[in-house]
Amino acid sequence: MTKEEALEALSSIFAEVLDEKDIELDYQMTANDVDRWDSITNMTIISEIESRFNIKLKLREIIKLKNVGALCDAIVSKSK
């Protein structure tokens, strides 16, 4: 899986979880840039990511994620 494929899949997950069909993510985006991306929806997003990619993210890894690009990198590295 490439970083671009991870971003595309994340866009689908975010659209579903946040109920925002037209969401367009980029690598630099953070929770401050996305309406309704708060601590509660973040838990749902992480759960969907783990389920869809069949990976597990440790709390320590989640806390270190600074933006969508870092999340894509984590998905790519764990999907290998």
From TrEMBL:
**SUPFAM superfamilies hit by this protein:** ACP-like
Domain Carrier, by residue range, is: 1-79
Q: Which InterPro entries match?
A: ACP-like_sf (IPR036736), PP-bd_ACP (IPR009081)
Q: Which Gene3D superfamilies match?
A: ACP-like
Q: Which residues form the signal peptide?
A: none
Under the heading Pfam families, the entry gives:
PP-binding
| Name the record gives this protein | Acyl carrier protein
Q: Which organism is it from?
A: Prevotella herbatica
